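[step 3/7] fold_predict: job queued, chain A
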Amino acid sequence: MRITFLTLILIFNSFNLFSQDRRVITTAVPFLMISADARASGLGEQGVATTPDAFSQHWNPAKYVFIENKSGIGVSYTPYLSKLVSDVFLANLNYYNVINERSSWSTSFKYFSLGDIDILQNPQDVPYLETPNEFTLDASYILKLNDNFSMGVTGRFLMSDVKLQSVDSDSSSASSFAVDISGFFQSDEKAYENFNGIWRAGFNISNMGPKMKYEELGKNNFIPTNLKIGSAFDFIFDSSNKLSLNLELNKLLVPSPSIPLYNSNDQIIGYNQEDVSFLSGLFKSFGDAPGGFSEELKEITLALGFEYLYNDSFALRLGYFGENEDKGARKYITFGTGFRLDDIKIDLSYLLSTSDIISPLENTLRFSFTYNFN
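[step 4/7] structure written:
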């Protein structure tokens, strides 16, 4: 389906650095923050401390050295704005390989299509067809530092090709690179009174890299440098029944919109971000909110998820994601299920918004496929 006005709105929202009513933090390439697989999506869109799977590259690559299989591949497809259009989507391809008991490597490719756009410079012209898109390509190396803790480092190339070449023959794509640092802890299985249990914890500082510049906007735009921390606990009731409880906190490490913008009547119409380097913005992001510490807390999102696993072959998932009203107001409940047959795994998830601001993924069925090599 070809779209014009709607896609242009999406592009504008990706680069808009202020909000008229709220100090919402926005960045370039915001698709990097979209949950890329159905299992994590069913758990309230989290995965930094969940059990490792083929899609750990997006959430916490350091988990790969704890995975049970030698290698595997994961493919996922996420429709975006599926209520309105059919050609805006996020596709994700992952591969991991465990080298030995202490190390592994992994790679992934993400592609975000913003649909087809018909460009008409004059009503009588034959329309030009444009297909703006964005993608990333990354690779990670993971090392287990002891029996229970590992760390990983990731390098990433980002490309944003959302310019309309048919309108401006001189336009070019914006690009950047980024680095992630991640860590993961998994305890040994311990016996409690009525069950056994395993503790897990993880963190990931992702997308640390230079800003992206779009020539026609005349300014550099922060990429979504982000901090995820989380913990989890597995209740192991017997060899067939397991319940995991997962909690994750998330904060963008880019400057808060703090510089007021005024109209001709000296009324504040929005806020702009401070023009600093990405590294300076990273450290300032912990204390630059105009409202002080209370506003910094508002910039933290929360995800809570439950996963019931039967016989390592069938899973039921329930999750909740919450964001403060002044920082985006994303709030929704997620549902998911998964099926495993030998080395093949299929996951599905569904999102139901509980906020007045409807999510672009509202009522969207997300799909993931995994094949693990023994």
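[step 5/7] annotate
The longest strand covers residues 149-161.
The first helix runs from residue 5 to 15.
exit 0
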